[in-house]
Amino acid sequence: MSEINTAALEALRSRIKSATIYTPDSERYKDVLVRWSDTGMKYAGVVVQPIDALDVSIALSWAQEYDIDLAVKCGGHSTAGTSSSDGGLVIDLSRMNKATVDTERKTITAQGGATWKEVDDAGAAHGLAAVGGTVNHTGIGGLTLGGGYGWLSGQYGLTIDNLLSATVVLADGRIVTASATENDDLFWGLRGAGYNFGVVVDFTYQAYDQKDPVYSGLLGFTADKLEVVMDALNESLAKPDSRFGAMCIFTLAPDGSGPMIIVIGFYNGPREEGEEKLASFTALEPVLNTLDMIPYPVVNTLQSPQATYGDRKSFKGIFYEPPLDPHFARVMFNDFMAKIQGEPDLKTSAIILEFTDMRKICEVPLSATAMASRNPTQNGIIYLRWTDESKDLEHRAWAREVQSKWKVELDARTKDQGVDLSVPQYINYAEPGDSVVSNIFGGNLERLQEVKAKYDPKNVFHKMQPIPTGASVSKKE
């Protein structure tokens, strides 16, 4: 790590009055470097924690004046370190985490450093909910700017489909509003490729009435039930209900009893309807069943025991064309379980598959937002977790091998169905350097290049899936 010279740091301190500044000799320096995954931590030259947009603007201008690498940290969930900088400046938005509700307009406005917990809790206090993430300690910034799937997506679409406006600090220091009526080209780009254009210091979301609890919980099945569980999940997509959603998790049982299939079920309606909707699952005699009527914000805590902070992690996006072949699922399940049982340091790893009603999402034209992956293809994640740093390259390489097998299956299925093989895939599940996921921006790329050239011509924002332009070729992390 190269140090930022004293004169540059003094210039920063003289300009910023309200933000907190951390340098390597600060008492809490190492605390502010902590990320959700230890693989995402880097030793910054300076960390600035602003309290308003002006602080952000000053820090941005300073970084460019002194040619210092820049990263922006919201929730810090990137396993690839895109919210960190080795020797550069990190603008850490964690002190800007307030969420406020306009009950008349039914909107929630949250600052850029908020997590979905702040949004969920603020909305619930007024009987409202926004389309947000399924793990409530995820930052709102990263999830929103890439698209945003949540349990309410079947009913209301993606997070970006419910974004009404955003306040953005641009590379040149200007503070602007982006909405359908102000800087509409920027607003278009933010919704699906938003990492590329500036620092979003607040988001305003459309919210919806959510006074009643939902029917949701965990179902656990032994490994021999895999095929019938897949049949039930496939049936849920064949006969979609916008109020229903599910996740299927291949993992090891916490008690050490062996491989397990966890299904998180969700139904936004009364108990009787929820029980009927999930009857095909409960009939399979799960060994674990926590289904109950619970407040909506609680649903977004169900994955928290598996998604805790700490350890080393790798995310690899996988995508499948429904219905998912139960035989292929069995092969993937057995191979994955053999690996993580054979290497105890990987025992808390998982494959997570989403089963989402895509109809509302696909109603939005591809050209309406920068998000290019509006199609029936479902999303998933290979989630590896370990502690031994010396195994980083080995585990990531293995994750890429597993990911490649899912890609081969997807290509075969889409070819059989006559689907365009170049279907773009979900940006938030494609970490930088992820060669398997090669098509993200699809037919929106040309327009995105124009928006990038207008708002960030020097490619200041280049950490997460930078839009390929002439400038971005020469400036890499």
TrEMBL record:
It comes from Penicillium vulpinum. Signal peptide: none annotated. Belongs to the oxygen-dependent FAD-linked oxidoreductase family. The keyword Oxidoreductase applies. This is FAD-binding PCMH-type domain-containing protein. Keywords: FAD, Flavoprotein, Oxidoreductase. InterPro entries: BBE, FAD-bd_PCMH, FAD-bd_PCMH-like_sf, FAD-bd_PCMH_sub1, FAD-bd_PCMH_sub2, FAD-linked_Oxidoreductase, Oxid_FAD_bind_N. Coiled coil: none annotated.
